[in-house]
Specification:
The complex is a heterodimer. By secondary structure, chain A is of the alpha/beta class. Chain A has a single domain, classed as Glycogen Phosphorylase B (Rossmann fold, 3-Layer(aba) Sandwich), CATH 3.40.50. Helices cover 40% and strands 14% of the residues of chain A. In chain A, helix 1 links the parallel strand 1 and strand 2. In chain A, helix 1 crosses helix 5. Chain A is globular and about 60 Å long. Chain B is 36% helix and 20% strand. Chain B is of the alpha/beta class. The radius of gyration of chain B is 15 Å and the shape is globular. The longest helix of chain B is centred in the middle third of the chain and has 18 residues. In chain B, helix 4 packs across helix 5. Classes of the chains: A alpha/beta, B alpha/beta. Chains A and B meet through helix 2, helix 3, helix 4 and helix 6 of A and helix 2, helix 3 and strand 5 of B.
Chain lengths: 161, 157
């Protein structure tokens, strides 16, 4: 099963529309979370929003995640070790307030298990691949330093410089 | 009796975040609160249960685009902070977390802002405002840290 998600804040019709067009040729079930204002697809199963535990269950069931370039979804994909294809929202197309998702996609593209469709036309090719890797559930090495600095400040009120 | 004494001495942490990426990041920072008495607050029902962090207070989501909601949101967040009587307030964003820091500061708590790792080119608006409030102001991007700005220690990615 392919799980698509655009987050809770904004619709992302460019992504859901492309997936809706691809779906009949994919030969695999697609479930999409399309947002409160999203345009309804016709070829795929959809929900506007989901309760966290319901979403978690679908995440576990999915073989691949297709999503906007939201950090929450990327971190969830890492946590569950599911390959994820991200499509960054573009401010110029009214898909977000700014282009921070383009920056996120640039930063994350190339990490194991994280694939970027910079252009929506790349989505079909990525979905037809059978060699998608699973991302690592581990955060990078720097999280340890962040933890210890926070722990220190919480306990002593002194900021590590 | 002895246990009550211990619990009274634990540092009380109030950890507040919006749903989605903000919450995922807060959960990845959980290790930092080990040994503290932690109260979580989120903007969506069911998140605390899903993440297994126990009873989580719910605060309304709001942002600068909806001024009326800010007012009701502000009062709800203020109540959560007053109830928790925290020694430390920490947030990964967004607007409700910023308000929690402000109210926390007013009641004498230490305040920590961790700007979202999603903001790799510029801090979020809440994140920039947090710089005026937070005792510890953190970015997760080394190139965004500077002497008069946020500090960088590492990132959750």
């Amino acid at each position: 099963m392919i799980l698509a998600t655009v987050g809770t804040q904004l619709p992302f019709d460019r992504l859901i529309g492309a997936l809706d067009e691809l779906a009949p040729k994919l030969g695999v079930k697609v479930v999409a979370q399309i947002g409160a204002q999203g345009r309804e697809p016709v070829n795929i199963e959809w929900r506007r929003t989901m309760e966290p535990r319901q979403f978690e269950a679908l995440f576990l069931e999915a073989s691949v995640i297709v999503a906007h370039a939201g950090i929450g979804t990327v971190l969830a994909a890492k946590r569950h070790r599911k390959p994820i294809i991200i499509v960054p929202r573009r401010a110029a197309q009214g898909e977000h307030r700014n282009d921070h998702q383009m920056a996120t996609a640039r930063q994350l593209g190339g990490s194991p298990g994280i694939y970027v469709a910079h252009d929506i036309d790349e989505l079909g090719g990525l979905l037809s691949r059978t060699d998608l890797e699973r991302p690592s559930p581990e955060a990078g090495r720097s999280i340890g330093a962040l933890h210890s600095a926070l722990r220190n400040f919480i306990q002593t009120g002194v900021a590590v410089s | 009796m002895a246990k009550d004494m211990d619990e009274r001495r634990l540092t009380r942490v109030l950890a507040v975040s919006s749903s989605g990426g903000h919450w995922e990041q807060l959960m990845l920072l959980r290790d930092s609160f080990q040994g503290c008495d932690v109260q979580y607050a989120a903007t969506m029902e069911g998140l605390g249960e899903r993440s297994g962090v126990g009873a989580t207070r719910i605060v309304p989501d709001f942002n600068a685009n909806k001024p009326m909601r800010v007012l009701t949101g502000l009062m709800a967040v203020a109540k959560v902070v007053r109830d928790a009587k925290p020694n430390v307030v920490i947030s990964t964003g967004a607007a409700p977390g910023l308000i929690a820091l402000l109210v926390g500061k007013m009641i004498g708590a230490r305040t920590i802002w961790i700007d979202s790792v999603a903001n790799s080119e510029r801090l979020s608006l809440s994140g920039r405002m947090a710089g005026r409030i937070a005792d510890l102001w953190v970015t997760q991007w080394e190139h965004l840290a500077n002497r008069n700005g946020p500090v960088y220690y590492g990132a959750v990615l």
